[in-house]
């Protein structure tokens, strides 16, 4: 009830501010007079999680270059020293100490940054959650990401389409994988996919042979390929000595390739496997007819949008958002700027990557 009241009042405040054209920044922490902006060469912190997916590696480089080009002093860090949330907590604290005016965070663990973002708010810094939402704190001012629920829906639909292309009639045997439970995106991706898949499980079109449909059973700790490969090995050994596996819901490319490696090692035909991130090796795999789909979430566009938000704040302008209702972090509804993800299969790859110099050549066959 209390939680509902909080959410409801946040929605009312957000809606009222949208109507009056006010920024929600003041409402969220009230610690900075946004209208005054800040220095053009301010320190801007960027705290990224790890390098398990190519998109994070690319984001770091793009932030370095983009912030420099915009005249800021970028301080870009990865939680890589011990690959734990403690690394990221220390990095954010040090960005606050350095006087960063905006701290952009791709959370290593979205539930464990409350003290650090409180310190940022106390120091008057704006906090932007990048790609992954930061949970259970009022001190996250904005969220910039691809529409995560849509990503999940596209993956669920691609799984159905890919299997139907190979075998027009069901029932289909499938297995489900989700991401790391410390990443708020994992439940959103999985929820989006299950919106599409659950009705088909209920009507018998899909059969999850292992019976593992709960997100706790499907999770892949740390988003690590090895964990997905081990789980797939176990699923195959335990459930598919006779049965045929038609499809696997994979939340991203790195895990998709691990799943395919496991299936190949077991000497089975490759099922329809979904993905996300447009990783080079997965685009090659799609063009070779192995992985079925990926999602294009162009990192260049996301970083560009995040930097545009920094520039708006610097000038004291209203920071633009386009979805102020969907992302409830448990304490507030975080105003978000969401970009549209695009499903990619072999069929539309050339079109989808037409303006991407790294990926476009891979699609020319
Ligand atoms: C990102 C995905 C990525 C995953 C693992 C998620 O939060 O949205 O693009 O594949 O993390 O790094």
What report would you give on this structure?
By secondary structure, the protein is an alpha/beta fold. It has two domains: 2-140 and 298-340, Rossmann fold, CATH 3.40.50.2300; 148-297 and 344-363, Response regulator (Rossmann fold), CATH 3.40.50.2300. Helices cover 44% and strands 14% of the residues. A six-stranded parallel β-sheet has the order 2-1-3-4-5-11, sandwiched between helices. Strand 3 (102-105), helix 5 (114-122) and strand 4 (126-130) form a beta-alpha-beta unit. Helix 6 runs parallel beside helix 7 and helix 9 runs parallel beside helix 10 (253-265). 47% of the residues are buried. The chain binds beta-D-glucopyranose (BGC). Beta-D-glucopyranose binds at residues 52-53, 55, 131-132, 179, 183, 185, 223, 252, 276-277.
Per DSSP E runs of 2 or more residues, the count of β-strands stands at: 12
Question: What general form does the structure show?
Answer: elongated
Oligomer: single chain
The Rg value, from CA coordinates, equals 21 Å
Largest sheet entry: 6 strands, parallel
Q: Report the order of strands and helices.
A: HHEHEHEHEEHEHEHHEHEHEHEEH
How helix-rich are the residues, as a percent range?
Answer: 40-55%
Chemical compounds bound to the protein: beta-D-glucopyranose
> Strand sequence of the main sheet, in spatial order?
2-1-3-4-5-11
CATH class of the largest domain: Alpha Beta
Low-pLDDT regions? 1-34
In DSSP terms (H or I, runs of 4 or more residues), the helix count works out at 13
CATH superfamily of the largest domain: Response regulator
